[in-house]
């Protein structure tokens, strides 16, 4: 993970790149080792001893592995009535790879994009790498604040400038854990039509819903127009596969497929895609996701109970209905950098709120906790330490 331009240099290099042995990495937004289906994936590979699928070893179709595309098509059309066809779908090298491709092909340095405040840190990195101007829309428990969105769009129209796209994480957002309500989704789509921007919907957590019903996707609500929708196998299978998918109009998908890198090398990660296609077609993925929901829900419950126990007055936090993250607001007198230094001295690492804002200063009272990686004991211990340190700093 590289530092994006403008991000506060808040975490030591070693913790950036991995997990320090013996530490409590509350920042780690990936699956715990015991939640990875290594044996199931290993079994697919063992079966290849006898009959290796040769397509896995060569350059592939620009849109991606055909069997994986067929599997995803049936699955996505089964979850929502989307009417997605083969030419609306492609495989990408992880959702991040999809965001990078969209950014590279749809924007130029100096263009403006809309992001939430806060938003997913690594997407902000990609936008900064491309030299984009970020305009941030504050969110509340329901999603983007519409008056702030309206005001930003008016400011841009006066410049005059038009955002190229609005990047959103619709379900169990990274970092806040919130889900954008159906009303807000409809309102954002309305504004996108009026102001001529695309919505990039980075939906990597929707399969990890613990309770309640998901609002329809932006893609479904917009009838598939001017929405690019990303998904990923990272959160429900394994990040190391570097595999995700992109849904868009036939025209957009054809344009992406015709980009230089895909013309030369074919679609994303043919080897991994062939392994995953076989794993998914056997029914193993669906069973694994069902099991994972229970595992993450238990970790979420434990984290919320530990927060209730450990946090002093003046600290508040979100109660996500799925996904990986809880977002904390610190009392006004507690600065997140000071807390971070004290926590690190006790080998407790969290994600500093500053990294999730286009304007890092806005994160000075925030931090993100992840419950996806740690054992129950470590989660309890890490949250307990934070509570004690915050109480000390609150005076
Ligand atoms: C919103 C969001 N998008 C994308 C990713 C990464 O997905 P991938 O591994 O498919 O690139 C993450 C992981 O933290 C995320 O939170």
Commentary on this structure:
The protein has two domains: 13-29 and 286-393, Aspartate Aminotransferase, domain 1; 39-282, Aspartate Aminotransferase, domain 2, CATH 3.40.640. 41% of the residues lie in helices and 14% in strands. The protein has 395 residues and is of the alpha/beta class. The chain has helices at 13-17, 38-47, 66-79, 94-106, 121-129, 146-158, 182-195, 218-221, 250-257, 260-265, 270-281, 284-310, 336-345, 376-393; strands at residues 24-25, 89-92, 112-117, 133-140, 143-144, 165-168, 198-202, 227-232, 244-247, 316-317, 325-329, 348-349, 351-352, 366-370. The chain is globular, with a radius of gyration of 21 Å. It has 14 helices and 14 strands. The longest helix has 27 residues, at 284-310. An eight-stranded mixed β-sheet has the order 2-9-8-7-6-3-4-5, with helices on both faces. The protein has a four-stranded antiparallel β-sheet with strand order 10-11-14-13, with helices on one face. A two-stranded parallel ribbon has the order 1-12. The relative contact order is 0.17. The structure holds pyridoxal-5'-phosphate. Pyridoxal-5'-phosphate (PLP) binds next to helix 4.
